UniProtKB/TrEMBL annotation:
The protein's name in its UniProt record: FAD dependent oxidoreductase domain-containing protein
GO BP: D-amino acid catabolic process
Keywords of the record: FAD, Flavoprotein, Oxidoreductase
Protein's UniProt keywords contain Flavoprotein: yes
Stated family: Belongs to the DAMOX/DASOX family.
Taxonomic superkingdom: Eukaryota
Residues reported to bind D-dopa: 317, 349
Cellular component aspect of the GO annotation: cytoplasm
Organism taxonomic ancestry: Eukaryota, Fungi, Dikarya, Basidiomycota, Agaricomycotina
Domain annotation FAD dependent oxidoreductase: ranges: 9-364
Pfam families from the UniProt entry: DAO (PF01266)
Co-factor(s): FAD
Example GO molecular function: FAD binding
Residues binding FAD, per UniProt: 50-51
Organism: Schizophyllum amplum
Amino acid sequence: MANSDRKSIVVLGAGVVGLTTAVSLQEQGNYNVTVLADAFPSDPKSVKYTSHWAGAILLNGMSGIDGTRNQLMIDAEKASLEVHMKLAASEGEASRAYLRIPAIMYLDTPLPSTNPLCQFPDFKIIPQEDLPPNTAHGISFTTLTIDPPLHLNYLVQRLSAAGGSLVRGSAMHINAILEGGAAIFAGRPPQAPAAIVNCSGLGARTLGGVEDGAVFPVRGQTVRIHAPWTRQLIMNPGPNPEEHTGVFPRASGDVYLVGTKHEDDWYPAPRPELTRKILELTLALCPEIAPPEVRAVRKPVVEDILPLILEEGVGLRPARKGGVRIQLEWLTAKDGGKVPLVHNYGHAGSGYEGSWGSADEAVKLLGSAFAQ
Ligand SMILES: Cc1cc2nc3c(=O)[nH]c(=O)nc-3n(C[C@H](O)[C@H](O)[C@H](O)COP(=O)(O)OP(=O)(O)OC[C@H]3O[C@@H](n4cnc5c(N)ncnc54)[C@H](O)[C@@H]3O)c2cc1C
């Protein structure tokens, strides 16, 4: 299709959801996509941009927040897993962000056989005699971890290569985009888009014209260390929000230590006492994060991990009561014309796990809107 015949689409949001949706739309060949956002992957990390802070492991069905998983999310995770597996196995740039890794998860009760995790490669129930003391149940399987900055930059490059573009701007009301498109945020004459796709994550709570009160943050505090000798993912969802513990190695040799799950907690900076607790819990869960030379001579302690720390951080998972919203709405433009608005936000703790599948769903909704 000639460039001038393509419909111009503004995708609001440059997190993993917005960028994946923008790539999926641009690669359709019918659209010219501009991503409008006030935070991008190349910016310094901030609490305003959750995608930098994800543990970014694929655990379909296990990293959700209670009450925020719906069928759309389950379907999106299933579809996304296939795409992530293909990208990880590819020869190209995309594969650099992925690490295929053996994983262990401890649980209070066995998983129902319908849980998608039971279909993961190498899935096994760990025999009782091999479990640590006071552990009721355990499973092992193979999964992928993703390095968020590498994956996000890959998405930006893929979007640009397909002809999409990025504009920085902060939209206070959806009607500003409806009337002026991304162009007004770039200081250019207004250019009303043919459609808007809203991937604003937590921003959907305050964005004028959307103001979705069901959206709320689930705060996660994390620590990143450099420990390339750790090549086992271990997770213990834990009995309470402070004891949600995970050790997630990445391809770079960095290891992400997570962290907490506090609902409605907006505090943007790491709390030192929680950092200490994360180190204690993750070291107890996985003593292998300590340097091998220390482990060779004695039991490691938290002080052995402190020199390995690269970063502490906080991310706010964009949760939504009732689950992810992937839905078509119609806006009325100034001239009375109807303009489709497709929502794709509220992925809680599963934005990477659901990114490709929810993008597909948004693409389908937009296609159906233009077909009406
Ligand atoms: C500790 C932690 C661990 C996690 N672990 C995992 C995991 O293992 N697996 C997994 O799949 N997920 C995980 N997640 C969740 C994952 O990070 C999120 O689901 C995902 O990043 C959400 O992406 P998003 O694109 O919706 O939001 P964001 O990344 O927050 O992006 C929102 C975008 O919208 C823009 N925006 C919003 N409002 C406006 C506005 N009004 N004007 C302009 N721009 C606007 C922002 O600038 C930004 O670009 C984890 C999260 C945390 C915090």
